[in-house]
C-alpha cells in the first residue's frame, strides 16, 4: 500500500500536496539511510544465518507500523504532520529491517544464474499479484470491513493486509535455506571501511546503480501521478483505480516474457528495449489525445511493460554484479550492496515525489478543498517530460555496464556455470 500513501495523505488526511510530498520524500531518504546502515551491519554480524535471523526479527514490528501509518487520528495542524512523519519513518525503518536481509537472501538462494533469474521473476510476479490486490481491493475491502469511507476505509484495509503479510513473511523465514557454499560457516567480520570501499570500487555496481537511480525517478513520477491525473484531469477517480489494477495485471504477463527475452537476447538488451519503449510511450502521451480515459489507461499499461522490463533487469543483474565485485576485489558484501541500492532507490523516489508534488501544486492542486487543474496540457507535459529525460538517461548509463555475460553471453543463463567463491 506504499502506492496509496501519498494519495492517502492528500485525499483522506487533507494535507496540501507539496507538504505531503515533502513528508514522503523525507521518509524516503530516511529509508535509504537506514537501509544502508542495516546492510552494513548485517554483513558484519559473525553469526550463521544472519540474514534470515534479522529478517525474522522485523516481521511483526513491520506489520504493526504499517497499521499505524494508516491509522486516522484526531489531530490537526502540526500535530498531524508530526504523526504522519513519525509513523512513516517507523514504517520505513522496519521495512528496511525486513527488506534488506530478504534481498540478500534472494541473492544467496543459489549460485546458478538461471535459478537466480527465476527467483527474480517469481519474486516480481508475486509482488505484482500483491500490488494488483492492493490496487483493486484497498478501497472496496476497507469499506466492507469498516462500513465507512475515507481514512477509516484505508485503515481497515491496512489491518487486513498487515495480518496476511506478517503470516507470509514468518512462513518464508521459517522455510528459507541458504544455497551458498559458506552457508554453514560463520562469516569473517570485515572492517566497515573495507566493506564500503568494496562496494564503491565495483564498477559494475556503480553503472547499474546509476542507471537504476535514473529509472526510479521516472517510474516514481509516472506511478504517483496516476490517481491524480484521472481524478483531476479526467474527472474519473474510479478509472484511475482500474488503471492501477490493469498495470499490475499486465506486469504478471510481462514478467515471463522478460525472462524469455533475457534468455534469448540478454539482460542489457532488455534494458535498452524497455527504455526505448518507455521513451516512445511518453512522447505519445505528450503529443497524443489523452483526454479520453481509455487512451490514458492504454498509455499506463504500455508504460508498465517498460517499467517491468527495467525492474527485471535490475534484480536479475544485481547478484551477478555482487559476484563481479567478489571476483575482482576478494570481498563479498551482499547486504551492504542491497542496502546501498535501497538508499539510491529511496533518494530517487524522494526526488521524483518532490518534483511531482511541485508540478501538481503549480498546476492547481493546492489542497483537497481546491482541486482545480489550470491546464490539462500543462499537467501532461509536467508528468511526461521529466520522466522521459530520466528514461533516456537510464538507457545511456547502462551502455557502460562492464560485466561479460550481461549481453549476448547470458542468452542462456540456466546453462551458465556456478561462480566459485573463496571462503570468507
SSE layout and pairing:
Blueprint: H1 2-11, H2 17-43, H3 50-69, H4 78-107, H5 113-146, H6 151-175, H7 192-200, H8 203-233, H9 237-265, H10 267-287, H11 293-329, H12 334-362, H13 376-398
Question: How large is the radius of gyration?
Answer: 21 Å
Structural class: mainly alpha
The average pLDDT score comes to 80
**Per CATH, what is the topology?**
Growth Hormone, Chain: A
Percent helix range: over 70%
General form: globular
Name of the CATH class: Mainly Alpha
Which band does the percent of strand residues land in? under 5%
CATH architectural group: Up-down Bundle
Q: Would you identify the regions where 5 or more consecutive residues have pLDDT less than 50?
A: 366-374, 406-424
Give the number of domains.
1
Beta-strand segment tally: 0
Task: Determine the N-to-C terminus distance.
Answer: 39 Å
Largest sheet report: none
Helix count, per DSSP? 13
SSE order, one letter for each helix or strand: HHHHHHHHHHHHH
CATH homology group = MFS general substrate transporter like domains
Highlighted features:
single chain; 424 residues; mainly alpha; Growth Hormone, Chain: A; globular
Write structural notes for this entry.
By secondary structure, the chain is an all-alpha fold. Helices cover 77% and strands 0% of the residues. The C terminus is likely disordered.
In a few lines, what is going on in this structure?
The protein has 424 residues and is an all-alpha fold. It is built from 13 helices and no strands.
Amino acid at each position: 500500500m506504499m502506492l496509496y500513501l501519498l494519495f492517502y495523505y492528500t485525499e483522506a488526511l487533507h494535507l496540501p500536496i507539496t507538504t505531503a510530498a515533502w513528508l514522503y520524500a523525507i521518509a524516503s531518504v530516511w529509508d535509504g539511510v537506514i537501509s544502508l546502515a542495516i546492510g552494513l551491519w548485517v554483513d558484519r554480524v559473525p553469526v550463521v544465518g544472519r540474514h534470515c535471523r534479522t529478517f525474522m526479527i522485523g516481521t511483526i514490528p513491520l506489520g504493526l507500523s504499517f497499521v499505524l501509518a494508516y491509522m486516522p487520528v484526531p489531530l490537526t495542524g502540526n500535530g498531524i504532520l508530526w504523526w504522519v512523519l513519525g509513523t512513516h519513518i517507523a514504517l520505513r525503518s522496519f521495512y528496511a529491517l525486513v527488506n534488506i536481509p530478504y534481498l540478500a537472501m534472494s541473492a544467496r538462494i543459489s549460485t546458478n544464474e538461471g535459478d537466480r533469474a527465476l527467483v527474480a521473476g517469481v519474486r516480481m510476479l508475486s509482488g505484482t499479484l500483491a500490488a494488483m490486490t492492493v490496487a483493486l481491493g484497498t478501497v472496496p475491502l476497507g469499506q466492507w470491513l469498516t462500513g465507512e469511507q475515507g481514512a477509516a476505509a484505508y485503515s481497515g484495509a491496512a489491518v487486513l493486509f498487515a495480518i496476511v503479510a506478517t503470516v507470509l513473511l514468518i512462513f518464508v523465514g521459517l522455510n528459507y535455506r541458504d544455497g551458498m557454499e559458506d552457508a554453514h560457516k560463520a562469516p569473517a567480520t570485515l572492517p566497515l571501511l573495507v566493506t564500503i570501499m568494496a562496494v564503491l570500487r565495483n564498477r559494475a555496481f556503480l553503472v547499474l546503480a546509476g542507471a537504476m537511480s535514473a529509472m526510479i525517478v521516472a517510474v516514481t513520477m509516472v506511478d504517483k501521478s496516476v490517481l491524480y491525473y484521472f481524478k483531476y484531469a479526467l474527472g474519473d477517480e474510479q478509472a484511475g483505480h482500474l488503471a492501477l489494477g490493469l498495470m499490475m495485471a499486465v506486469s504478471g504477463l510481462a514478467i515471463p516474457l522478460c525472462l524469455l527475452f533475457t534468455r534469448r537476447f540478454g539482460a542489457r538488451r532488455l534494458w535498452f528495449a524497455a527504455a526505448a519503449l518507455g521513451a516512445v510511450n511518453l512522447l505519445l502521451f505528450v503529443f497524443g489525445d489523452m483526454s479520453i480515459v481509455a487512451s490514458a489507461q492504454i498509455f499506463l499499461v504500455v508504460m508498465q511493460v517498460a517499467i517491468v522490463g527495467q525492474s527485471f533487469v535490475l534484480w536479475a543483474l544485481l547478484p551477478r554484479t555482487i559476484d563481479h565485485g567478489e571476483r575482482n576485489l576478494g570481498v563479498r558484501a551482499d547486504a551492504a550492496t542491497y542496502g546501498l541500492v535501497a538508499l539510491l532507490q529511496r533518494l530517487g523516489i524522494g526526488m521524483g515525489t518532490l518534483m511531482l508534488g511541485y508540478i501538481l501544486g503549480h498546476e492547481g492542486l493546492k489542497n483537497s478543498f481546491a482541486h482545480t487543474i489550470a491546464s490539462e496540457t500543462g499537467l501532461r507535459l509536467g508528468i511526461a517530460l521529466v520522466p522521459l529525460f530520466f528514461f533516456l538517461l537510464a538507457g545511456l548509463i547502462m551502455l557502460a555496464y562492464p560485466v561479460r555475460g550481461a549481453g549476448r553471453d547470458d542468452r542462456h543463463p540456466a546453462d551458465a556455470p556456478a561462480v566459485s567463491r573463496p571462503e570468507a
